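The protein record quoted in full:

***
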Amino acid sequence: MLNKKGSAGYWVVGVIVVVLAIVAYFTFGSSSQSNFSESNVSNDVVLGNSYTVQEVAQHSSQQDCWVIVNGKVYDATQIIPTHPGGAQAIVPLCGKDGSVAFNTKNGKGSHSPKASETLDSYFVGNFKS
């Protein structure tokens, strides 16, 4: 059986452990939460942000060409010089919604699954209407 002096010692140690746990939570828990928020910002960049029609319209040239296709925004600048249908198939869509043109291959059918995969590699974000 423990004497009163021993019980008091355990009680003091218990209080110290609880205090240290609280200090650790607020010290490390807060920074972990902060890092989590920062990583969410990084994920937004990786996964893409949302863009309005006005923001997409700012990228309306052959040298800086963003196109909206099926609710997503793509930077089509790099594909323009090598596009099988020629630059004229994409440039008029720069800064605009090109969903119909992409889905119908400008009225000539539909794009291949490979074309959709290629398009996905140019994804910059979602379209925010």
Summary: Residues 102 and 115 are 9 Å apart (CA to CA). The chain has two domains: 4-47, 50-127. Confidence is low (pLDDT under 50) at residues 30-46. Residues 4-47 form one domain.
